[in-house]
Amino acid sequence: MHWRNTNHRYGLISIALHWVMAILVIALFALGKYMITLDYYHPLYLALPEWHRGLGVLTALLLITRLLWRWSNPLPDLSGRPWEKPLARLVHRLFYVLLLAIVISGYLISTADGHALAVFGWFDIPALTRGANLEDRAGAVHNFLAWLLAFMLAMHVGGALKHHFIDKDATLTRMLGFAPGQRS
């Protein structure tokens, strides 16, 4: 297995970033949906938002890393019908934009009161803005974008499974680290 991408396969770094971010995004979605159901007296009421914010910052750092890695590596050839290839590129770009927008809206929620965003007690990210109703407005955007991301993720998984089971191409196996054409 190579560290870097080639024109025919993803490298180990790309694969690791993909799957770590996928796990983080799913965990953040589930955590976010669960934590908003908690009442003030629940023992996790204060802890879960701290974890959500910290993991959100970690996801933002991985997103930046992933973009830099993506721009410095070739993109492996895409499988599929001619109309699927530009659609796949568009969807991947939308994932990046959507993740960035979710991170920004999460930052605005967390710093709307003018206080810095603490990340696991390791460091603080200063508040750059403050405003009336900013937390509510950013929260509505954050929630909408999270659901949109969940929908896109479901479509992405469906597309990967279609490529694997119906088209019988190497789209899924390449992102699992198998050689092109090799099926699991």
Task: Give an account of the 3D structure.
The protein is mainly alpha-helical. It has one domain (12-175): Fumarate Reductase Cytochrome B subunit, CATH 1.20.950. It contains five helices and two strands. It has a two-stranded antiparallel ribbon with strand order 1-2.
Topology at a glance:
Blueprint: H1 12-35, H2 47-71, H3 84-111, E1 117-119, E2 123-125, H4 134-165, H5 171-175
Antiparallel strand pairs: 1-2
Helix pairs in contact: 1-2, 2-3, 3-4
What's the CATH topology name? Fumarate Reductase Cytochrome B subunit
For the termini, the CA-CA separation is: 16 Å
Percentage of residues in DSSP E strands: under 5%
Mean pLDDT: 93
How would you sum up the major sheet? 2 strands, antiparallel
- Low-confidence parts: none
Instruction: Please identify the top-level CATH class.
Output: Mainly Alpha
Shape: elongated
Classification by helices and strands: mainly alpha
Instruction: Report strand order across the widest sheet.
Output: 1-2
Compute the number of structural domains.
Answer: 1
Oligomeric nature of the chains: single chain
Tell me the helix content.
55-70%
Could you say what the CATH architecture is?
Answer: Up-down Bundle
- State the helix count: 5
The total strand number stands at 2
The run of helices and strands is HHHEEHH
Radius of gyration: 19 Å
